[in-house]
Design a protein that fits this description.
This protein has 272 residues and is α/β, with parallel strands linked by helices. The chain is 49% helix and 16% strand. It has a seven-stranded parallel beta sheet with strand order 3-2-1-4-6-7-10, with helices on both faces. Strands 5-8-9 form a three-stranded mixed beta sheet, with no helix packed on it.
Length: 272
């Protein structure tokens, strides 16, 4: 599939009221795709939807919580009712979470897993019949944390690792049907100023500034997601740091885990 072939395609992006999801909606819209926006805040979706319409993009907004299976069923049904088809599902919705294993409550674990992992499973389940018909794409937006258990972020890491296993199974089960599934490993990315992180007690708080960390732009991530779709790639790893980690895990895993232990000391200084 070429970039030009996205013209007229229907792309549903979860978590597209802000951040990477919003940038992805804008990028696909510029490529001629019709966009179904999704998020929990109808107000944020309306703002993004109006911006896209001003660009000449055909857009629909559907407020739904992806951690709720019934809400996901409604989301997909509304997309099909409005557009009559679905070609690309970008499972982007997710939350950041932190907490050591000892301090993170079961409730906080559950909240992270329900949004980051179950949310993708729920949406994909209801979208699969339509994506199989269009021979379309499922994209799972993951994280470099999916490749290692990041100390201080065990629940987040586990939720993203789960997506890897899910993607591999989906890629094999649907290969004969020519349904594409791509896994995008995202590194440190620019945050919205108001972005929050789920704490070990289940409460949200502002994310501290990342000092000395080079972040990728949201637009560059959006472009990578589009390339994953048009080139029907099984896996994409973003940023130089992410690619270096991928290589080091193969040839020098001890160094990776040494650096992770050092980062845990920085974590403790940040949150204690």
């Amino acid at each position: 599939m070429s970039v030009s072939s996205l013209n007229g395609k229907v792309v549903l992006i979860t978590g597209s009221g802000q951040g990477i999801g919003k940038a992805t909606a804008e990028h696909f819209g510029k490529l001629g795709a019709r966009i179904c926006l999704n998020g929990r805040s109808a107000g944020k979706l309306k703002v993004v939807g109006d911006e896209l319409r001003a660009m000449g993009v055909h857009v629909q907004e559907v407020a739904a919580d992806v951690s709720d299976p019934q809400a996901c069923e409604h989301l997909i049904a509304e997309c099909i009712r409005h557009f009559g088809q679905l070609d690309v599902l970008v499972n982007n919705a997710g939350i950041a979470s932190r907490g050591t294993i000892a301090e993170t409550t079961p409730e906080s674990w559950e909240q992270t897993m329900k949004i980051n992992f179950n949310g993708a499973v729920n949406c994909t389940y209801y979208a699969l019949p339509h994506l199989s018909e269009s021979k379309g794409s499922v994209v799972l937006v993951s994280s470099m944390a999916a490749k290692v258990g990041v100390p201080g972020h065990a629940a987040y890491s586990a939720s993203k690792m789960g997506l890897t296993a899910y993607a591999r199974a989906l890629q094999n089960e649907f290969k004969k049907e020519d349904l594409h599934c791509g896994l995008v490993f995202v590194g440190f990315t620019e945050n919205e100023t108001a972005k929050e992180i789920l704490g070990p007690d289940g409460e949200y708080k502002s994310i501290p500034n990342r000092k000395g960390v080079k972040t990728a732009s949201r637009e560059s991530v959006a472009q990578a997601i589009a390339r994953c779709v048009t080139q029907r790639k099984n896996q994409v790893t973003l940023t130089l740091m992410g690619k270096a980690q991928h290589i080091l895990l193969k040839f020098a895993p001890g160094l990776v885990y040494f650096l992770l232990r050092r980062s845990f000391r920085e974590y403790e200084e940040t949150y204690r």
